[in-house]
Amino acid sequence: MVDLASRAPLPPITKAKSARSDNALMLLFLLVAAVLSLLPILRVEIPPLLDYPNHYARLWLISGGAQDPVMAAMYRVDWGAAWTNVLTDMIAAAVGPVLPLQILSRLLLALGLLMPAIGLTALNRALFGGLHWWNIVCVILVWNVIFLAGFLNFSIGLGLALLLVAGDLHLASRSLVLRLAYRAASSALLLIAHPFALLFFVVLQAALAFGPHLSLLADRSLWKPMLGRVLAACTPCFIPLLVLLAFGPALPGSNSAAGQGGTVWSEISLTNAISVLLTYFKTYDLQVDAVYVVLFAGLIGLACLRRRLSAHAGLLLVAGLLAVVSPFIPVSYRATGAIDLRLPSMMVLAMAAGVRPRLFEAGRDRLVLASLALVLVASRMIVVDRVWSEAEKNIAAVEAAVADLPPGAKLLPLQDTGDKALNSQAPSGRFLGRNMPLHWHYGSLAVVREKAFIPTLFTAAGKQPITVLPPYTEISVPEGVPPTVDLLTKPVQAAFPYLADWTHRFDYILVLNADQPNAAGPMPNLPNLVSVADKGFARLYRIAR
Fold it and tell me: Which of 8, 192, 461, 526 is the most buried (most CB within 10 A)?
């Protein structure tokens, strides 16, 4: 017997109630996915994010640490030094004095982790209506090399760009003046966060101005109006950038260390191109990452084959253009590294926001898919948390090694670096991907924990609102990584000018990754180095005079 009533169309009121119920259920799943993703951050105070320990020290200084009499002789908070890349610094200045650093740091980490997913969900919802199981699947993207490298301002900026563009769509029926003012104000906020966040906002505006359909490309008479819409949408976004160029105190890289201000290009090859394009999926284990890439792409591919894929042509077009350009972007420019990782991150987010696979749309099927998406999110979190658990031991070793430093000590961080071919054999928690050591900035923890001076705290004009005070300027660089231990007895290199006469300029040496061999030679056996603490991963030496 056939139940004909089940095939009858639902009345409008019933449809509206069903849509609200479905949205509420998807929102609940999204909140659970967010909480699952936050668990490692809630558990670990100092996660092994490449740049984060250095940022952590700066945030502590801005929150009030710079007012300590010991630190006040070394560093000064200088808001005239940078107008861009300072969003987290501004948050620290606003709430840091009343919020414990342990809470502030987790708040900023949570923003860096979740803002891209929040912005992506908001834009996808604005384009296609309602919440969807696809939004839950996209939460797996929160774990990526950008966040795990500690690029917090950039990560937050990407999410803000998506969120602000979604807000712009809701202003479509409002006056042109209001919309132009909104874009200019949004652009100012994004420029404060990160220059590439502003670029992403411009790219998204251009995509939405292009429109949701590719058919206009076939009609040349529509090209001119389309270009006019793109220019009208993007022009207000450049106003804050022009202000920065005209009146800003300094541009990023303007006081780069000797030999670090040029342009560095990567090799042009298919392997490198694939590696760059997969940036936003890469974490600690490329084989595990490949599984999530296949699942993510497989859902889109299956929906496309079944003609069940809703897509915004403008967003997919800019994602394609970013994919073409990304392999040809320099690795470093004006002493700013990882430039080549920025555009492919935008590519993935634009693509994910611009599609919605409409597979298995029955109520029970959506519930099953949302549940499976939660399993994916949880599995991604578990993979990361296992690495963090191992790296947490290394951070604890550093904190234990520097525990006996006297306040005001001048600390020289060094490192052991092995042969790259053997990186896969290193203990878990040592590398992001295969070749990016996680320990580079662990020495920055001595600034917060023991009020020590290090030569590599991020103080680049145009990027950080911190300046080094004389005479410490003679033994510091705006940014850098620790020298290897063998350089103590070799000629001074341009990247490490503070190594000149290090025996008289510094009080202590901290060796990181000390339980691994150094490819260029072991720690020199010098009579003026006295072992103070050996914690395996971290060793502290006093420089005897």
Answer: 192
Three-class DSSP category at 297: helix
Say whether 325 sits in a helix, a strand or coil: helix
Instruction: pLDDT tens for the chain, 545 residues: list them.
Output: 333 333 334 355 545 555 677 788 999 999 999 999 999 999 998 999 999 999 999 999 999 999 999 999 999 999 988 889 999 999 999 999 999 999 999 999 999 999 999 999 999 999 999 999 999 999 999 999 999 999 999 999 999 999 999 999 999 889 989 999 999 999 999 999 999 999 999 999 999 999 998 887 877 888 888 888 889 889 999 999 998 888 877 767 665 554 455 688 877 888 888 999 999 999 998 899 999 999 999 999 999 999 999 999 999 999 999 999 999 988 887 667 788 899 999 999 999 999 999 987 766 788 889 999 999 999 999 999 999 999 999 999 999 999 989 999 999 999 999 888 777 788 888 998 878 899 999 999 999 999 999 999 999 988 999 999 999 999 999 999 999 999 999 999 999 999 999 999 999 999 999 999 999 999 999 999 999 999 999 999 999 98
- Alpha helices (H) in 218-329, listed in sequence order: 223-234, 239-247, 270-277, 286-305, 313-325
Name residue 407's amino acid: P
In angstroms, how far is CA 33 from the centroid of its own chain?
A: 19
* Tokens encoding 203: 């790219």
Q: Which amino acid is at 477?
A: V
> What distance in Å separates the CA atoms of residue 340 and residue 268, rounded to the nearest whole number?
12
Task: Please name the residue that has the structure tokens 């031991």.
Answer: 393
| Largest distance between two CA atoms of the chain | 97
Q: How many residues does the chain have?
A: 545
- Residues 286 and 77: their CA atoms lie apart, in Å, by 40
Nearest 5°: the CA angle 7, 13, 19 is 80
Question: Which residue in this structure is represented by tokens 């919020």?
Answer: 99
Is the pTM higher than 0.85? The answer reads yes
Query: Could you identify the residue written with the tokens 């000064």?
Result: 76
Cα within 13 Å of Cα(372), Cβ side: 13
- Bridge partners of 415? 484, 512
Distance between CA atoms of residues 27 and 470, nearest Å: 53
